[in-house]
Amino acid sequence: MSPRGLAGEFIGRTLRVSGAARRAHGDPRTTTAPRTATVSDVRVFAIANQKGGVGKTTTAVNLAAAVAGAGYDVLIVDIDPQANATVGLGQPRDLEPNVYAVLCGECTAEQAVHATPVDRLWLLPSGRDLVGASVELPTVARSEQRLRDALAPLRERFGFILIDCPPSLGPLTVNALVAADRVIVPVQTEYYALEGLAQVLDTISLIQRELNPRLSVAGMLLTMHDNRTRLGRDVERDVREHFPGLVFDTVIPRNVRLSEAPSFGVPVTLHDPFCAGSDAYVALAREVAAGG
Questions:
Q1: Which has the higher per-residue pLDDT, 5 or 220?
Q2: Alpha-carbon Rg of the chain, whole angstroms?
Q3: Looking at domain 41-291, which of 3.40.50.300, 3.30.70.270, 1.10.760.10, 3.30.413.10 is its CATH number?
Q4: In degrees rounded to 5, what are phi and psi of residue 217?
Q5: Which of 166, 153, 168, 289 lies closest to 218, judged by CA?
Q6: pLDDT tens readout for residues 104-121
Q7: What is the DSSP string of 242-257?
Q8: Which residues pair with 44 in a beta bridge?
């Protein structure tokens, strides 16, 4: 079977599974605020996909930097125990206070906000202890609302808040989805990266129905795209055909500078502001700012 046939067959299965969930729980694309909501209405974005290696942290860091470069005050919340967003902004993994202390009630979110090398961009860092939060949180009453309650006082301070989620759909990601207004779902333009896409959409629908009625999908973001390969082009075409209006126009290309930037502790917009990766995230920032 050709690559296009494989991609089309898989997306077809994805649609059949996610379609059943939308009929049962409501469609996150249509039952909440439209994508044309203003910036004042939409402040908190979760970057989520339980599939690892699809560009969640790269998107969180570089989108945040691009939005900050446009003149907005931006906060990144690193709720991934791997702390890659924290390190990618030049901060140590043991930076304190951090998001774990906030979830445990040891300090407020405002007390745990740290400056970064990027003007107008702040960080609520991850920490090693966050690994245990997945076990501890379910034992606490209203645990899924901890992050939302903690971030509430910061919604007026920051024009945008971006939450970098772990590669799972566990308690930490649930906290992020309950706290968010919109979800950005990075999707690598390769066959196996499409696995689990239905589960992400089903989880969003469930969170919307049970815990956060305002939650909806801001868009799917095609990442690590190589337009030179037939498979990359075919996956992009099929995703756009099956999810019309739900895929960002911007496509993030494979780019060496994007891969290098975290080792320097800065976003790609500082590492190489004129590379293709920088251009793509600046374009995405315009889409996000315009569409909410």
A1: 220
A2: 18
A3: 3.40.50.300
A4: -85, 120
A5: 289
A6: 999 999 999 999 999 999
A7: HSTT-EEEEEEEP-HH
A8: 161
Give Cα 2 to chain centroid, integer Å. 31
Coil, helix or strand at residue 182 = strand
Domains of the chain, residue spans = 41-291
Question: Residue 195: which H helix or E strand, with range?
Answer: none
What is the longest distance spanned by two Cα atoms in the chain? 56
Residue 144 contacts residue 175 (beta carbons within 8 Å): yes
CA 167, 48, 155, 265 dihedral sign is: positive
Asked if residues 89 and 76 have their Cβ atoms less than 8 Å apart, the reply is: yes
User: CA 100, 103, 104, 110 torsion: positive or negative?
Assistant: positive
Tell how strand 114-115 and strand 121-124 pair up: antiparallel
Answer whether 188's CB lies under 8 Å from 231's CB: no
State the pTM of this model.
0.84
